[in-house]
Write the structure tokens for this entry.
Amino acid sequence: MRLSIAFPLVARALTCTLGLALPMRLMSAQTAPTEGPYKVLKSARVGGEGGTDYIFADDVGRRLYIPRGATRADSASGRPASPARISVFNLDDLSPMGEIITAPNSQGNGAAIDPKSGHGFTSSRPGITMFDTKSMQLIKSIPIDSGVGPDGILFDGFNDHVYVFSHPTKDATVIDSKTGNVLGRIDLGGVPEQAVADGKGLLYVVMQDAIGSVTVVDVKTMKATAHWTFVDKGACNGLSLDAANKVLFASCGRSGVVAGAPAPTPGGPPPAPAVPMMVVMSAKDGKILTSLPLAGSSDGGAFNPKTREAFSSHGNGTLTIVSEKSPTQFDVLQNLNTMNGARTIAFDGKTGHIFVMSVERGPAPPPPPTGGRGGQAPVIPGSFTVLMIGK
């Protein structure tokens, strides 16, 4: 994920919303309906200040975890200062259950839970926050190298390890979920985003580079074993997996840039505009099965093995649902309107519900008199909202 912990943590939302016009034009060109089986079941305006990145659903403990960034006091609006923390909600009705104050000065991007040990972790800096899920109290801060920039995070029950992914170092820090000890780091060969595990010893990590790819990791040796390119797709942030049929679904924000192609010549035709696509790939050998249009630029993916549907959430306030008709046939089922800025996603395996989140914004300030782009529209205080989506 892109930088999302600096006050007021808006870089990711800005990146997504700047591409609003193009994805909306793309939507209108698609045959997939906006009406369909999925709808917003519940909209909870839970409030609270501080930016967000990932949202995580613990379908065993029935809790929803959202790391929130620290905010400074603002006398003009009367907003008090808020510490970095993890907001916790009931997964079934979105009622608040409390907050976990993270390690001092550690602001988190994402959360992961080990249901067996009851330990939770956030991908935070300057240290990884480890907490107890029952008491919702901090256990310790796990030191990391200064160059590591924690972003995505994943728990794998195959070996009870937590993987914390870093953009600047292009690797994953591996942590024992029972003890919190750092076991080592895995070189991924690219800028890592979302990751999924097959539960049998393999880890798949999507790369955010200009030419997207998936890195395959053997978790037993903690080594990358393959790098599968998307050839002409890039800026990939979301990844989900049909483990039974060994199919990967990668959500990419840009297509049309072929690997090894020369750069556009000065004075020549401009490069083709970015077109968000979902790349469907075999998890056996990296063969690309198909590519499908997305309704916006994605920042997260999920898969429901019961319905064989893949989901991609977008910063322009849409959610694309892809139906797996067979392991070789895929169709866009629906483009659902959600909430502008709702770019990351969580999936509840028990109910099949999808969760996204965002804030409301006021009018954008006008461009400066000297020219250029105006500032971003300010967040409306207390407008932070979580959406529950389902059939």
Observations:
- Residues 11-262+271-365+378-390 form a domain with the Methylamine Dehydrogenase; Chain H fold (CATH 2.130.10.10).
